[in-house]
Amino acid sequence: MTGPLWVALPGGWLVGQVKNAATVTLGKMLQSKDSGSDVCAPYLRAANVQPDGVLVLDDVNEMWFGDEELEKLSIRAGDVVVVEGGQGGFGRAAYVDEDLPGWGFQNSINRLRPTGDFDGRFIAFYLIALRASGFIRAYCNVVSMPHLTAEKLARIPMPLPSLEEQRAIADHLDRETARIDTLIEEQQRFIELARERRSALITAAVTGQTYVLESA
């Protein structure tokens, strides 16, 4: 059976939909006032979910939640958060690797909570690959403001390997993407040093320093 990223899958792999691997929950609409018995709590929003699976938690907003809402919209280690809308961010996904006690999430975010024998890391990597391939953009049928609604997200086709295979794939990708990220950081430092050297070279030349040195 073919799918968004495959023509054929390894033997023993099943094919299903995202909803077969995780429950999909849309977050809460922004509430700026206390209804009388609410608590003010931090929440995840689209800006916290950056490209390539990066979850940024140093820029935090707060809003009001009821106690039951905060329990229902909790964020736990193993969850996957997916951006629901917006031209620049819809479909971005990130794996949550630690519990965020007392946090909720806004309705710009869908939370995937893996069920049964499913690893959130595998789900997150799969969604990252789908977005990079252009599938998410085509799937959302973008005309004006795109939205990857909870219903659409739940229906996305996905491969369903065994839990052992999911973990092996996720472990491999964790190692290899960490190596690549390190290489990117090193290259960025080199580029910055090269830019500084270029600027210093130009400054020295136009102020006569390089000319004097070379003439001497």
From TrEMBL:
Its EC number is 3.1.21.-. It comes from the Bacteria. Keywords: DNA-binding, Endonuclease, Hydrolase, Nuclease, Restriction system. The keyword Disulfide bond does not apply. Gene3D superfamilies: DNA methylase specificity domains. The keyword rRNA-binding does not apply. InterPro entries: Restrct_endonuc_typeI_TRD, Restrct_endonuc_typeI_TRD_sf, Type-I_RE_S_subunit. One of its GO terms (molecular function) is endonuclease activity. Residues 66-185 form the Type I restriction modification DNA specificity domain. Belongs to the type-I restriction system S methylase family. The methyltransferase is composed of M and S polypeptides. This is Restriction endonuclease subunit S.
